[in-house]
Amino acid sequence: MERLESWKLGLERLRSAQPADWAEAGRLVAEIARMSTDTMLRQAAEQALPVLRQAMSNDDHSVTVAAQRRIGVVLEVVHDLAAPRFGRRSAMPKKLSSEDRARKMLGLPLAVQLTCDDINQAYRRAAKGTHPDQGGSAQAFIDLAAARDILIHPGAHKDA
């Protein structure tokens, strides 16, 4: 993160400098291309290098504008990587209710109204592989039966 901040400051300084120092820009972007662990940033820097090298040797206005744009692209990627992340992105997912766990166990969709026939068909399908006579474990079969009961009689079971 510290390296990103120093790259960001260097790129912003180079971008705002009136007579642009293309040699310094090329050195900084080459360092970014060599040392960055982020593929997007590395690609942006590698694509900017040829244009910056051309701007070092050529004083053409169109090449200068293209080099400034390339520095802007690299700076934009650095800003995205260095920006603080807000919200609940790293929060743990909420716990499923017992009914939702039962639906997942039987392979049923979470947000669809189910009939008893739908539940029983899903139970039969899942029980074929988990039945003790078919090589499954007894506990898995008992869990499937409990999941079916929870879905058929939803009010009778307390949410855990």
How would you describe this protein?
By secondary structure, the protein is mostly helical. It has two domains: 2-82, no CATH class; 98-156, DnaJ domain (Helix Hairpins, Orthogonal Bundle). The chain contains seven helices and no strands. It has helices at 2-16, 22-35, 39-57, 61-82, 98-106, 116-130, 138-152. The model has no long low-confidence stretch (mean pLDDT 85). Residues 101-160 form the J domain. This is J domain-containing protein. It comes from Bradyrhizobium stylosanthis. InterPro entries: DnaJ_domain, J_dom_sf.
Q: How do the helices and strands follow one another from N- to C-terminus?
A: HHHHHHH
N/C terminus separation: 41 Å
Tell me the strand percentage band.
under 5%
> Number of helical runs?
7
Domains, number: 2
Number of strands: 0
Tell me the overall shape. rod-shaped
What are the segments in which pLDDT stays under 50 over at least 5 consecutive residues? none
Mean pLDDT, all residues: 85
Main beta-sheet strand count, sense and barrel state: none
Q: What value does the Rg take, in angstroms?
A: 29 Å
- Class based on secondary structure composition and strand pairing: mainly alpha
Q: What percent of residues adopt helix (DSSP H or I)? A: 55-70%
InterPro entries: DnaJ_domain, J_dom_sf
Domain J: 101-160
Protein name: J domain-containing protein
